Amino acid sequence: MALFLLMAMLLTHTAWAAPAATFTDELETARYLAERLQQGETSVHIGLPETFDYTLCYRYLSMLYRDAYVFEYIPTPTGSYIQITYNDGVKHGEAKAEAARLAAQLINPDMSQREKYLAIYNDLLTNMEYDMHAALNQQTERGDAFSAYGALVDGRAVCDGIAAAYAMICRAANLPCLYVASQEMNHSWNAVWYNGDIRYIDITYDLTGDADTDYFMLTADQLARDHKWDRDMVARLTDAVWDARYVSAYTLNAMGGLFRGTDQGYELDRTPTRAEAAIMLVRFLGLEKEALAESDHMHMPFTDVNPNHAPYIAMLYALGLTHGTTETTFSPNVEVQARDYMTFMLRVLGYEEEAGEFAWATAVEDSLRLGVLDEAAYADLNGAAFDRGRMACVSLTVLQAADREGNVLADTLIERGILSEKKVLEFLEKN
User: Fold this and answer.
1) For domain 89-241, which CATH number applies: 3.40.50, 2.60.120, 3.10.620, 1.10.20?
2) Rounded Cα distance, 16 and 19, in Å
3) CB–CB of 36/71 below 8 Å?
């Protein structure tokens, strides 16, 4: 297993700019760096403490976004520049393009999550060979074998490249997947989130072994029969990246696109806006297709709404479910709080302010009283700032709640053909 880690100590008298962000935790830093890599950035300026463990940060980063690169840090008076340089940027780009092509080819919306993981697994198992020469010699002449490029483009790789390729395709298919490295075994494989559990997939062992699918979707205890790795480290990372907020967002997305990200991902730490809340209301009403189809025929007085948001806001305005901040403005970028969002969700469930069933000022408390939220969901909503992560959590809770007439919202959306019963049962039975 190749380890690309370079520590560069460069100090000059240059006037340094302030860092874009400041971190104290290696795991959170790695998550930030992985997001930047996903967006195509390879150099970031961040503030870090003197005691920061760059090696630990690199290990976390490799699990989140693995490929053949050099990890370099440059301390400055105002923070550290962390630069990540791919061994071959062109080949990395080609590998990402091939991963995206395979994700589009192999995955269709009707598949279960397990079927999606299996389709990618089978494709790599069928169309790739293990590069024994590179594994035995660890030679730079076959450096590609240690990268996703080797597995996806050349069709030959060692465990590093195989696990990196599997994770890369999963990212392109919006499937939760991590790269796991074992220093004890000089080996690597993948961890995935599946139906509320962490499972492991070792394509290399199946590629070089005698039996098929022996190392597909194993529990940690099953894999530990012949594998050794830092299970505590994997647990720390999976608990952080696949927490309740992420799982809620992913589940809503996978069941029918009820919660979607941006080009920056799910952005779970950001406060949602009025426009985003309006979009969620339309989706939970099951009216997204109608809103988009009828956008040319719907009118509203708001002049500050962009074309992407206009169909949703126009639909809600026509239904009398939302109002502007003035007669001509909607203020789509104004941040919403928990009571604002729960007002929308209670309207989805058919409750009426005019009938005195709830009030905007007490919408969160009213949601508890009406049985829409249980004590745990209510405590979480009141316990911290309202962000897109909590919006996802409470949205998933509302989806499983009964409306004013006693009908579970998810069942209603299934009956109307908005959600697939297969998908709802797959994700909500256990979660």
Assistant:
1) 3.10.620
2) 9
3) no
